Amino acid sequence: MIPTGIAHLDKITGGLTLGDNVVFQIASGVPIEYFIKSYFNSPHEYNKSVIYINFNYSPHTIYKRFHHIFTRANVTLVDAFTHGKGNSDPVFLDFYSQEAQHDIQEVICIENPRNIASFLDAMNQIQEVHKEGSFYIFDSLTGMNELWKDEQSVLDIFAFTCPKLYDLNTIAYWVYEKNAHSKKFIAGITHITQIVFSINNTDEDYYDLKVLKLEDRPTTSSGGSHRFRIINRTIEFQEHREVMPFHIGAKVKELRKSQQITQSGLAQRLNMTPGAISQIENDITMPSLHTLVQLSTIFNRPIEYFISIDAHKNPSKGFSLIERKDISSVTHSNIKLEKLSDDSITGIQAFHITFDNKADVQRPLFLHKGREFFMVIEGTINICINDEDYTVNNGESMYLETAFIEKWLNPEDQECQIIYLLL
């Protein structure tokens, strides 16, 4: 697995493999450069040779945007902009008079990028040198179409280049703007490539990513929307929480309304957006500790009020009873998780997990730094730890001290049930 540099993306895709062509279908204004930059955040051998094919921006802009990459990697910048959409303007040509000042291994300026044969000839020469393990970035299929004014030619070049790069064992990122192309073009691109991400803007401070295609990969955890923000120039996904046991949102909403505070008013006091308050109140996102402290002050409630579950405590008799009605549960795809207790009461987190028959979960269920224990109380479960497979049968158990379970499979035609403890 070759990391994308974004942990959440690696979790839902299983990472990249040599030969992958990754297409980003984006809405206007989506900052796709952060996905490119993230690829270089993880040290691996497949980001040392980089070929950046540029149709949309001047080479000076590209250099400024990706300067930290160009200083660390062997970069070939293929400039199809200066004599293309840049119309050979002296401002753009000035880059070449200062080329020695730029830390770029090689710059190839295509003299006649409007001529498709000229562009293909340049690419064929580059691909003769940059083969296995190279990273190709095509900054805009949309830019190609704007230059050539022939969508079918762009599709034909993609249909030729994509399989070629696959056979050369490279990795390639391709970008296009969804609203700038026909349904036929989009269908053709999707059919040919290995991976397609669709990224859209939202009405809030988030972007929305969907996986439209994952060739030769399990799709168990890829469905649905994956929301992210750009924070400190880094992509941060809103992790899906399998369990929201505290019902913080309902408590915040009740307190806010009881004090006749609007969402906008609360957002202003917390230095957040009204949309972020709405997400908290609907238990879509969990507030940070800093936000909890602020809420505690605003509503004059201890922090424990927000993070406690409704258990019947009886300190004098030394027990806490958690009734069935107080157990929170969530069903996701082919598994059901019920949270039986919370560490604020018991010191541990206990879950009852039910796997449907033949359930295949290609991801960890918990991202927990600590000891874990589970016992199978019905059926059989196959698990994968460090790429090795194990079978745990009814009545058997497993203790995990530092390892974590990467995959789960119920091999039988009946449900499998386990009790899982986070210690």
Name the overall outline. Answer: globular
Low-confidence stretches: none
Biggest pleated sheet: 10 strands, mixed
Mean pLDDT: 83
Helix residue percentage = 25-40%
The CATH architecture of the largest domain would be 3-Layer(aba) Sandwich
**What's the number of helices?**
15
Let me know the CATH homologous superfamily of the largest domain.
Answer: P-loop containing nucleotide triphosphate hydrolases
User: How far apart lie the N and C ends?
Assistant: 30 Å
Q: What count of domains describes the coordinates?
A: 3
Strand fraction: 25-35%
Order of strands across the main sheet: 4-3-2-5-6-1-7-8-9-10
* CATH domain class name of the largest domain: Alpha Beta
Indicate the radius of gyration in whole angstroms.
Answer: 26 Å
**Count of extended strands:** 22
Which fold does the CATH topology of the largest domain refer to? Rossmann fold
Structural category: alpha/beta
Describe what this molecule looks like in 3D.
This protein is an alpha/beta fold and 423 residues long. The chain folds into three domains: 7-237, 3-Layer(aba) Sandwich (Rossmann fold), CATH 3.40.50; 248-307, 434 Repressor (Amino-terminal Domain), CATH 1.10.260.40; 328-422, Jelly Rolls (Sandwich). The chain is 30% helix and 28% strand. It is built from 15 helices and 22 strands. The strands form four sheets. Strands 4-3-2-5-6-1-7-8-9-10 form a ten-stranded mixed β-sheet. The protein has a six-stranded antiparallel β-sheet with strand order 13-14-15-22-17-20. Strands 16-21-18-19 form a four-stranded antiparallel β-sheet, with no helix packed on it. Helix 8 packs parallel to helix 9 (183-192) and helix 11 packs across helix 12. The longest helix has 17 residues, at 151-167. The mean pLDDT is 83.
